[in-house]
Amino acid sequence: MITLEVARKIIAAAEAKATEIGQPMNIAVVDAGGNLVAHVRMDNAWIGSVNISINKAWTSRAFDITTKALGENSQSGDQFFGIHASNGGKVMVFAGGIPLKKGKKVVGAIGVSGGSGEQDHAVAEAGAKAY
């Protein structure tokens, strides 16, 4: 279960990575139901990325896949092409969302936005590893 205490640990690890790379980020953690548990907007992180980070976390939980992988499989002609238009446009198809697993079971997800896709994914990975 992703409690607030657990979400704070995940966010702290992600924040540390964002600070290390010098990129302020929005970091969101959702539970097994895709519900927001915690969100942090680091100083100077883009306000336009607040909802993106939350939606990346939700997307990773909704489909139990990284948003990076979902994006790679949603290009024209690929199996998930057009998925970004589903769920009221809430689905994010670029890097920064990673499912959180206990064993093989997905129990939540982290979503990060505010840098390049590579930066977002790296910061999300740092948070996920803390779980």
Explained architecture:
- The protein is of the alpha+beta class.
- It has a single domain (4-130), classed as Beta-Lactamase, CATH 3.30.450.150.
- The protein has four helices and four strands.
- It has helices at residues 4-21, 50-63, 67-72, 117-130, and strands spanning 26-31, 36-41, 97-102, 105-113.
- The protein has a four-stranded antiparallel beta sheet.
- The radius of gyration is 13 Å and the shape is globular.
- The termini are close together.
Question: What is shown here, in short?
Answer:
The chain is an alpha+beta fold.
How big a fraction of the residues is strand?
15-25%
Question: What is the end-to-end distance?
Answer: 11 Å
Helix content: 25-40%
| Average residue-wise pLDDT | 96
Helices, by number, come to 4
Radius of gyration: 13 Å
Low-confidence stretches: none
Say which CATH homologous superfamily is assigned: Haem-degrading domain
Q: Structural class of the secondary structure composition?
A: alpha+beta
CATH architecture: 2-Layer Sandwich
CATH class: Alpha Beta
- The H-and-E topology, N to C, reads as HEEHHEEH
From the structure provided, what is the oligomeric state, counting identical versus distinct chains?
Answer: single chain
Number of strands: 4
Number of domains: 1
What is the CATH T-level topology?
Beta-Lactamase
Side by side, the strands of the main sheet go 2-1-4-3
Shape: globular
